[in-house]
């Protein structure tokens, strides 16, 4: 299985004009736009369904809204499954090509875009996704989380690929 790390560059940061040379926060809208573009690419290039995992339910809701209006010339069919249903979700119950939820469905073998701060709980003895996509934003917290994820996946023996996005 392949794990792809998309490492976003400085243009995905908000620069605070009032502070001389400090960088404030990640530009959440720019990151969500990148997630939408990546989602569209996965749908166009893969026959597998896509699950987007995030432990931040507010960000999942924002992504849900953004996916409906992201591109006026194409539609990204998706569904948002709320937290109260996550523990019951299995791969055979996913109905849309793209599903947004807070944990990996049991026995899912498609593509996973992981926005959560930790590596997915994968084991080579169970059903594995076709591919995992990890997005690392340019802030120090996300970079450290990315390093931790990288080590966790490497220690499991997965193929790791790095894509710098400027």
Q: How is the secondary structure organized here?
A:
Layout: E1 2-8, E2 13-15, E3 23-26, H1 28-45, E4 50-53, H2 57-69, E5 78-80, H3 83-86, E6 98-101, E7 111-114, E8 131-136, H4 140-155, E9 159-165
Parallel strand pairs: 1-8, 1-9, 4-6, 4-7, 5-6, 7-8
Antiparallel strand pairs: 2-3
Can you walk through the features of this model?
Mean pLDDT is 88; it is low at 19-23. The strands form two sheets. The chain has a seven-stranded parallel beta sheet, with helices on both faces. By secondary structure, the protein is α/β, with parallel strands linked by helices. The chain is globular, with a radius of gyration of 16 Å. It has four helices and nine strands.
How many separate helices? 4
Summed over residues and divided by their number, the pLDDT gives a mean of: 88
Poorly predicted residue ranges: 19-23
What is the beta-strand fraction? 25-35%
Strand order of the largest sheet: 5-6-4-7-8-1-9
Q: Please provide the count of β strands.
A: 9
Shape: globular
Oligomer: single chain
CATH fold node name: Rossmann fold
Structural class: alpha/beta
Q: Describe the sheet with the most strands.
A: 7 strands, parallel
Q: Given this structure, which CATH class is correct?
A: Alpha Beta
- Overall number of structural domains: 1
**What would you give as the CATH superfamily?**
DNA polymerase III subunit chi
The helical percent reads: 25-40%
Short description:
One of its GO terms (biological process) is positive regulation of DNA-templated DNA replication initiation. The protein has 166 residues and is of the alpha/beta class.
